[in-house]
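Quick question, first post here. What does this chain look like in 3D?
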Amino acid sequence: MIEIKNVTKKYGEKVALDDVSFNVNDGEIFAFIGHNGAGKTTLIKSIVGIYEFDEGDILINGKSIKDNPIVCKKDMAFVPDNPELYENMKAIDFINFICDMYEVDEETREKNIRKYAELFEIENNLNDPILSFSHGMKQKVG
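> Answer (accepted):
Ran it through. Tokens below.
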């Protein structure tokens, strides 16, 4: 669950987020829609711990991103439009590298790699270098 509680973010005098509050419950799909400059990216990057915010709090599964950023980041993932990947690595090596960083155990890792590789239709490309992938394939690996 994600809880956004009275979040405000300012860039100097410009208010990008003004007292934003809402919840996203487990299993829900949530989308941000709005004009350029509405604060969509600012809020997403605040939720995942990339941007700090001035007021309020963001809770990931009941834990504050301000107080417990590492714990919160282990409970979520963020894939930007242009994911930064080590392009000279094979896809499977990059995925295993990320799993190591997040301390994903071997059994969970193998199960999820099989599951998501099939879901994203990349099971036949896991041993290919990321450099050879299209933009969309790179996003799937990310």
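Strands lie at 2-11, 14-24, 55-60, 63-64.
The chain is about 30% helix and 20% strand.
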